[in-house]
Amino acid sequence: MGKTLRMLFLLISVSAFPQDFAKKSLFSDVIGQNIKKYKNLANYAYRKADLERAQFLFDSLVDHVIKDSYMNNFKLREVNGKRSEMYAFEKPVYLITTAFWVATSSGEIPALNTIADQYHKEVDIVVLFWGPKDAIMKLKKHYSKNITLLYVDEMENTNDFTIKTMKHSLGFPTTFIMDESKRILDVRRNMNHHYEKDYTTSYNEHYQTFMNGLSLILNKEDGKTADPFTHD
Hints:
Layout: H1 2-13, H2 19-22, H3 27-32, H4 35-47, H5 51-66, E1 75-78, E2 83-85, E3 93-99, H6 108-119, E4 124-130, H7 133-139, E5 147-152, H8 161-168, E6 174-178, E7 184-189, H9 199-221
Parallel strand pairs: 3-4, 4-5
Antiparallel strand pairs: 1-2, 1-5, 3-6, 6-7
Helix pairs in contact: 1-5, 4-5, 6-9
């Protein structure tokens, strides 16, 4: 317990901003002050095969550093080649970062398609791929038209710290859940369910996983979650 608390302190000590200042912090700012320390501790945990400690470190980074920061307005490409940017999305965003070579289980994409068809009016469902445009185009047919598929042209983002962090430090697949102002409500790793599970089981488990994350946005839209910027 002592070691756990010390590592938690290391992660949050640099980011102990006054509350008003923290509300305006960008993702790149808060992660930049903590990512090196996090990577060192997490890599050590993985070398020791201590997956529980590694997960604890990730959760601590999210809870005490990333949450309530604002996503940067980094540049993106749609699969048709059109340039875009994160702030072009006006609704809350459910953003999944992944890569074209990452395998999915049988029910994962169909479950995400169902979610997108049900809630696309309330939320922008976005899948951001790392990989060449041609590879992403081949995947497009599997996704609902209500899901926005984007890819990162790393030649356009060679000096973009946000892009590098999302790929090389937080890893993927990872989900970023943001409100309409692009304030990060949560970050979650996407743990693929066992591939040997049948389609129905895979679909249901992924559907529940997606809905669990999406509920952070939907509850806020319904007024069930207090707005931190509202004062009595």
